[in-house]
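Appendix B, example 12.
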Amino acid sequence: MSQSPSRQSYLAPRYWMIHLGLGLLRACAWLPYPAIIWLGQQLGRLVYRFSANRRRIALTNLALCFPELDETARTRLAKAHFRSAGIGMLELTTAWYKPLDKLAPWYDISGLEHLQAAKARGKGTILLAFHTTCLELAGILLNQHRDLVAMYRPNNNPLFDRFIQDGRHNRLSTLDRDDVRGLVRCLRQNGAVWYGADQDYGPAHSVFAPFFDIPAATLTATSRFVRLGGAEVIPFTQYRDPETFRLHLEVHPPLTPFGEDDTADAVAMNRFLETYLRRHPEDYLWTHRRFKTRPEGMEPFYKKRARRRDTMTGRRFQELVRKHRALETDKYGRAKVLLTHDKEIIKLFYRRKKFSSDWWRPYAHRFVSNAGKLQALGFETVDITSSTHCPAHHCHLVRYPLIPGISAREALQKGQLSMQQLGEFYARLHDKGVYFRAGHLGNILLTAQNTLALIDLVDCYFYTAPLTPARVRRNFDQLLGYHKDRSLLAEKGLETLLDAYFRKRHITADKQPDYLPAPIVRALHNQNPNNNKGTE
């Protein structure tokens, strides 16, 4: 049987950075609680910006559970969640090591009479917890009023798991989630077990029950524990006030009847959680793939990330290039874009210079990352299926399905795209903090559904706030730097594009000149010599 690593083995170099992070986390226990709140919010903002995968999962979950919210509202909710998650991370050591009397002004608790009544009836209690960002601290605080035994799943990282267990043992008792005998023994002795059953652990020992009207794999272990231990199921919720950051803990009445039918129990648990989250959605763990397991025949909600480390031999690379049609070549005659027989695009990224940033962050990786970020922000773009590296030719290959449509340049020429639609698209990009450096009309696609999509993503940059006037000026400057686009936009009515842009971003007339670069001002002046104030 495998043994957990000894403490001496944690001195290996691979653990050094983890030790540093855990040391900083431990130091947070000695900070004033308002400082932890502020630092946690900043941590959450950083994670939202740089963790594209977690951001994508959260936005997918929010779109599934709150379809009535528009994209802006869901993005705002996702950002609030990440800030709350950052606070929750820094609260870990606060919960384990900070004197609890210093936390007394920061929380209140209600519903303790339900726990006392269950104990008086000689009933064990399954304290049904839900995975919120403040769950750890809330459980520690509740433990001061009723002794709890916490069920836990060991962390995949042995050092982090040891860190968590050492911390929790300062304040409460724990049980491995596989220790069913220990759990049943505790319940039969009139104990209280803190248990979370709201995550997707696969189809085994689960039933599908509606959660926000979507079938969700829900564990049946809670029902089994009730039958084995003769216990009551009492929900326990917590949320952090978004204004005062005060924690509100609530113990609810028991869920009855419970334990007679697994499916009915799963429906009751999900219905309770859904009702609660409609009131307090920010603190729930939306970065968990709650709908990962789907009923047979249903499409998955969460797209797999492209694998970045697949490699290809030089011979296979040559066969691939020879087999498929080249849509575009570089100045050396090498294929840059291939069209496969299955209507997929293969984009090839060669190393441009002997010494460049491509060594540590290949352009293909930026392309894949930017595609994920754009999708998370709600923009149409390429859907990456694979990413491959060919060391023999110093080339990375990215594959994705062809998006049916024509370039915005061609669409304007044919009259299929309006200047108003183009202006509103740029406004939406800039409002979301997207700086599309290669934003000429050939890199914007009018799809078959009459929507606009971005297809050349290497030179996309993302900011946490809407673009500043200086960046907007630079972006428009780059757009008009292409002679074909400048002539076409002037012909189709540049003023119309700008009017739509300013209306969409709610920019008043007195602020508009700050967003206009010199080429646009000159173009407008040439169109309308009597107008010396640009768009006014």
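Confidence is low (pLDDT under 50) at residues 529-536. The first strand starts at residue 107 and ends at 110.
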